[in-house]
Model the fold of this input.
Amino acid sequence: MNRLAKTLFVFPWALAIAALAWLVVQRFPPSGTVVFDVPFDGTSAWIDPFLPAERTTRPGLQADEGWSGQRVVQDPVYTSARLPGVYDEVDLEIEFRPIRQPIIEIGLLRDPESLSFEFQPIWYAPLEREGWRGVGEGTRRGYVRSSAGASVLASSDYQKLAVWHASATSYVARDPSGPPSKVAVSLRGSHDFWAVPAGNDVSFTFEIQDVNRAKGPDTVVFRVYRGDEELTREAVGIGGSRDTAMGPVVTKNVTVTGAQPGAYRIQFSADDDVFIRSIETASQRWVVGPRLSFGDIVGFEPGIKPGVAWSDSRHLVAETFHREGLQRVTFGDAGVKVLRTHEAFTLDRTDGDVQPKRLDVPLGDMRVIGDGWFSFTPEAFFAPQPRRVTDFTDPDREGIDAILTPYIRPVAIGDDWYRATVRFAIDPTSDHLRLALSAPNVLTRAGAVDVRRFRLTYRRPPLTWSEWWRVLRQEAVNAWRRMM
Amino acid sequence: MSLSDFLKAFIRQCTYALAFFVAIVLVAEFLTPASVTPFLDPVPFAVLAFALLSADAMRRTVKPNSWVRSVFGVLGLAIVLFVLWMRR
Done:
């Protein structure tokens, strides 16, 4: 009896140790892969419902619809996935149903300080239509029209190419050198100028003026870039700290000698107290954008200086900050009356023409932001970068033959539901994945994004002794960091 | 060893094994939040271990009194049931 009793006394301890071992295996799966296939109804411990609540429906059974999940009706919404340990990457599979929403992206928070997300595309309605095929050209992936060749993806013919979470081939061009030409303008504050070299140089001469409507000195910074490389940087101080009157016109030249063929960006950084009064350059092709701020000429010249430019933008927003700037703005076949100050009014082109259209701002004093670039003469126009895909992009009307993107078409699973998978690298020090779902302008379309299921597949290498050590060490580091 | 003695000893072993399990789980959960909870809810186990340990300690130290035992037994059971009901 005593022998049998002692044997039986081991049983509860064996059970406790087995339960602990089971928990350890859940935390440290030997295969290095763990999968959570969870309904998105607010019941899972592994992923939270989308927030804020006013942009979504309550998670769970959707009474009128007969499906269980959560409906997103405003953009953006955020969720958080609990990490089951130290993992290197996650495959995020989402079952969703887009309703009147052309574009959906899902992103992972990379920098909490700047709220910077790494977004990946999961849905783009125009590419679901007939006539597009997925291709890979070298390291480039994307979609081209059935009638076009795959080489369009690697082209720098930016009129026919759009990008979405991808980089295109660098623009390569050079024009013959010629005499400089001067354009009288009245541009207010910061602007980006893009130019093709004339001969071996890129040279711009700006006449700038501090109008001193706000007290204090002003500094103008000029930076020149080729691609992402900063070539030069120069700061110029204009205006005195106690000046209140209109400052003198100052001339400043920015030159890059021995310029390689390409598109150069001259970034002019200043506050709205600084006006550009004229621009002189030998470049035959140069544009401004995507921000163009027509200023007034009060105190500089009598009268009114209308703003005139040509742009390939399909969509513009116009905003003025003064009553004198209230006016009708026209852009191609589109027009809008700017009725109130400090309010953005939109202009959307509906034509199928790919040529730049004329923008008229009769009274000036208007800030315009587009999805393309602006030139002050039609001949000077060029597109220094391909257009980015936005929720307003219509490839058919805009003459786009190719879209450079890592986007993979989601799998249709019936009843307008789709399944998309994206992969993110994981920061090993994280406890949670902070995710965002972006459906731009879904509210204005009266659209929605229904989400009913997530499948989270976390991966790291299969467990070996060295991998055990690495994972345990990282777990200890993370525990120590949490307690400190 | 009589059957009664065996059962008392067996329940004591179960209590200690459960307390050991709960202690490890709570330390793990303290060091790494959510390392256990998504797989297993430790609270019912912790409450049960606490009640059993209390009963065991009481049995060893308090003079046997059927009234005290009954009151604490009912209270302990009520706490366990209440916590389970709250977390259902």
Notes: The mean pLDDT of chain B is 84.
